[in-house]
Amino acid sequence: MDFEDFVQDLSSLEVISKDSQKISVKLKGVPIKYANALRRICLNGVPVFAINTVDIIENSSVLPDEGLAHRLGLIPITTDLSRFNEPSKCDCNSESGCSNCKVMLVLDTGESDVTRTVFSNELSSEDDSIKPISDKISIVQLAPGQRVKIECYARLGRGTDHAKWNSANISTLIETDKKDESILTVESTGALRPEQIILAGVDEVSNRLVEFKDMINQIEE
């Protein structure tokens, strides 16, 4: 079986176990080279949202601006691939982006009266579908009189560009005793459901194979 046959016949994919964070599937009749390509794509080749640009309006915390921006960038963000475009594929063709390829999130803690920790639930998104996967991710600790006020922008990206865009925490492949049969396990960061990562990964590998074949054909011509 080549990968095109696998894409057209997903009956060769059998779900062994699945929950909200992890999925294990058996790939039957799929050569190990294609199975491993799918494993790698599921880890860092499926686009997800992450905060990419941070505008610091006020930061009187002990955490430097760079540290604050770094923490925000590593917060997993829920992703809707059906509604948003990757910046390089968006019709706006703009470096600043548009509502189809970026989402603004705002954090304004106000001046703190007590020592407290600022959590991800204080990040307000202009789109309810694009937000931190959890309300309990700590961002910074404030002492009395300190304040953080920022505007930040999330966009789609891939883990091959930066780890903050990894769609999965783990992606492992185990060969079984049968020929061309293996078990793929994917644990999501929470940005996408694990089954979404598998299906998006299948589409991505298929698209890359088509692009590669087109390149070969152009060379031969």
Structure description:
This protein has helices at 3-8, 32-44, 65-73, 194-220; strands spanning 13-18, 22-28, 48-59, 102-108, 116-119, 124-125, 138-142, 148-157, 168-175, 181-188. It has 221 residues and is of the alpha+beta class. It folds into two domains: 3-46 and 167-213, RNA polymerase, RBP11-like subunit (Gyrase A, domain 2); 48-159, RNA Polymerase Alpha Subunit, Chain A, domain 2. The strands form three sheets. Strands 1-2-10-9 form a four-stranded antiparallel beta sheet. Strands 3-8-4-6 form a four-stranded antiparallel beta sheet, covered by helices on one side. A hairpin with a 5-residue loop joins strand 9 (168-175) and strand 10 (181-188). It is globular. It starts with a helix and ends with a helix.
What would the keywords be for this entry?
25% helix, 2 domains, four-stranded antiparallel sheet, Gyrase A, domain 2, 221 residues, RNA Polymerase Alpha Subunit, Chain A, domain 2, alpha+beta, single chain
